[in-house]
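ENCODED BACKBONE
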Amino acid sequence: MPRRNNAHFDRQLIARAAPGGLPDSLPIVHATASTPAKEIIRARKLISKKCPVFDSEMVYFFVLRPAYRCKFGDKPSHQLSRFPVTFILRPEAVHDPRHVYPFDTGGAATGAFAKQADKYVKLEDYALSPNHAAATGHIGWAFESLDAYFEGRLRDGIQDEIKPFEDVVGGFVDVARMGIEGSNDHDRRASTVELAASHDVELVGNVLLTIAPKQLLEDNVPLNAELAKIGGDIKVYNWQPNRAPDEFQKDILRISQEWYRTNGIMP
């Protein structure tokens, strides 16, 4: 997506927020590969790093839905270190978000959505208000329910409501269609809300659930001890060598959705 070199933003999506019966805030999700995850667990915090897209120190999250794709995630590997670990945190872990976007800005900036994106709409114009309520407001307008959002199903009739001059709104819908299961260019990041923090984020007292490869934790007494200090529930998926990391996205989605339902976050 093209970038803005001025502050003449055209943020049409902000006015579309309509949370309906959704909660004011939702859990936030951070995922990374197993070896960096071990460092995060030992540090007991997510440490902000320079973002090449916005040239600022930030930590990135998705709202509710895991949509992580790692570099070379589509390449089979025997190295457990490449496979994802997911941390689901309380929204209160980030009181004052740096920004909120309706999709993954890293993917947008590197051309992941180029086939569907309006080439004239600037990345910065898609920004939502920088708060948790804006995230749920966008989900309510675009998907109506948490189940539909989790599955990437846009609200029926959403296209018919868009005025011809609403290029940012229409551009979002075009990109978000890539998040629908079965689309030719399927990419969950295209319709998963991104939230960024401009500071380190403490894990202790904030982690609700950690999802990791079973083989990362089996007989790993030191790492399990560190996880116990962080707190929260732990669920595992069954890693297998010589599969691609992205293949386990469905396992992580299923585990997280089951946990949300068990804990009353999703119906």
Notes: Strands lie at 28-33, 45-46, 49-51, 56-63, 84-89, 99-101, 194-197, 201-202, 207-213, 233-237.
